[in-house]
Amino acid sequence: MLESKGSVLVVAGLFFFGLAFVSNALVPALMYKDLPEKTAEQLVTANLRYQFEDLARRFPESFEKHVGQAPPDGPEKEQWLNDRCAELLRIGRKVYTGEACWHCHSQFVRPVSGESRRWGPVSQSWEYQNELQRPVLFGTRRVGPDLSREGGRRSNDWQAVHLFKPTLLSDGSVMPEYPWFFEGSPDKPNLRGLGLLTYLQWLGSWLPSYPYYEEWTSAHLPEGVEPGAVDQGAIDAANQGVTGDGDAEPEAQPDSQSAPQDNEAGQDSSGEAKPAEPAVSEPAAESPPAGATPESTTEPKPTDPKPTEPSPEPAPAEPAAGEVPAEQPIEGDRPPAPDEPTVQFSPWGPFFRQEVA
Amino acid sequence: MSSASLTDNRTVDVDRLVDRKLVLYFYLASLTYLFISMLGGLLMAFQLIRHNPLSGIEIFSPGRWRMVHTNAIAYGFLANALLGSMFWAVPRLTLRPVLSRLLSWFIFIAWQGVVLATAGGILLGQAQGLEWGETPTWIDPVALLGLALVVLNFLPSIVMTKGPLYVTLWYFMAALVWTFLTYAMGNFMPEYFVSGSAAGAVGGLFIHDLVGLFVTPIGWGLMYYFVPILLKKPIWSHGLSLVGFWGLAFFYPLQGIHHFLYTPIPMFLQYGAVISTIAVELVVASVIINFFGTLRGSGSAFITNLPIRWFYTGMIFYFLTCLQCAFQTTLTFQAIIHFTDWVVGHAHLVMFGVFGLWIQGIMTYLMPRLIGHEWYSRRLCEWHFWLSAISLAAMATDLIAGGLVQGHVWRALLPWDVSIEASMPFWVVRVFTGLGMFAGQIVFYVNIYRTFQLAQQGAPEAAPAARPALVGA
Predict the structure, then answer these.
(1) ipTM
(2) Which of A50, A339, B12, B203 is the most buried (most CB within 10 A)?
(3) Looking at the 3D structure of chain A, how many domains does it have?
(4) Interface touch B191/A135, C-beta < 8 Å
């Protein structure tokens, strides 16, 4: 009986496959069927719209050439910006898959290995219930960093130059160059470039912790705060978001533990990237879920003026997440400032760290 | 062909049932794609050590070539070689030709069209966001139709066989059904029907089933076919054969989600995938015991008989990779090794170390029979084996070790650059191991070409005493 054609065909071929399909594919699909799948239009939040309009300001010629000219101020302009933004998200997703970005950059943060300290809140199912995760881009390899909370961490300028030639900004980067996203220079992105920039800035724009900055050392943590405490608050906030239909109301989530931490590393340049009076006149779609971060307890971030110098002591230069202001020359390598010690990390040196004068 | 006389008392000239030219063409296509795939792998390897000679050229984008690398292996190298081998084995086991000679050639041509279109689509930036299934979405229905034709071509002759089926045919029959279903599920469901975590679960199932329900059963089916022929004795234990087949059929499809542990996919499904993965390793052990039981008493064949050496080396790698899998799929290991080169090393160990070696062993056995002349040089055959096997073992070891380093650097929350610098020595070694595998292929191609030349010149075969037999048959 075990060797008969019928049992091999029907039991092994069809039934066992079907059993696995039901238990491993249909069960999760049914579990999430009540989480509504968002369209690209529904993914356009105020956070993303801010970055999108920033693209239009920084690359006006390219934007007008490839995306178009916005109508004069008014509801039509709002609609136009939202529509174009969604369109570029779709284009960006195509570029992201077509160029195999997802084979070297994952898009999920695991609850282990300190990942929530490095990348931000642990990933939740509702974050992936959208059109741009068809098929989902979890990824299986990290040659480069996880990107699921990349949005807002770096300016559009930084992203453009980095895509054009990664080693200009990131010494020793092994990322390939993508000059074909640009028309000759990083300040002239083409449609694919603009789409990819929009897509990158979208990643994580739905989170209350947006934009998320990692902490390398405990030096920045205020006294009495345990490392990792910030993550728990963000996780709780994200859990709040998943209880309903995945479309959380922006309700205040006071989190005393995480409050002092979010303004530390890397904020000096983000203050530059976010002027106090953003051009977003109205939060575009629904407000992003608000939660753990102190800035977003009452309003979505872009409309919330930031302190120009949030940290009394600016964070030391970090080779990994260093940001370059827009005024920096983009051709050639950036020479280190004369009084700024060049820190090189070498895993093969003693204590994994060497300081070079 | 002893299995022929077991089921049928009539004398059948099995050689007339097989279209040798078709098998040869499948093999040549397979080797061509292996060559292209290796070029793609080398390009990515050079990119990672910052020495990409083609940097900044769109059509040579390392990311796109990385996808060509994996797809050319799965659909070009493995699929062509496995199909070719099935066109050799199935008529001999069923004592019937396949459904239609014309259909067979149509499948050959259509499948090359599918693979070339896939490569072209990926190089033009149209890849689908599904790992191992980056085939542009417009090709998916065509590929599925091709798989349906494959089923149509093989299944009738298997089903019409009278009496009990040999082990190989269990595997083939189930694999024909599984491959079709797997391809349909993986390419359509996460693209058109579900998104997010559910799509991730299906994607994991697809990655896994493509290896487990397409390549593995056909690969083992071929081992059950060729090993007894070459060793001139039956498989050691029929009972263990049954355990192996039914264990694989039940446990293998249940494991897909182990590719996405610690994702937002529900935890109980992740636990289920882990448990069934560990369970299948026991099944694997039974199959390995069965084959080494078969080898028992003929151990010298492992040294003297080249195809047997390819096969059993592959089986040793299979045991190692499955043992590794039982550990790496646990949540403890996953915390460190997921996302690292450990997984890349594992993939190379499976795809090249097991199935690649088996296929090249089968080719070493069949090529002289297809070309019609003994190998040009046994010494080149030896070089092919040792370069491939040693380079692969070195690459897998190197990547697995590198993965451990990466995982620990990440867990220590060191800056990302540190993990890149820490990987660099491993990536440099990887380039050289890749070049070693590549060199093995070049040797193989030269050997095949010279054998062709000899066959065309009609050179007489060397005397058996002067040229030790390559194969046992």
Answers:
(1) 0.92
(2) B203
(3) 1
(4) yes
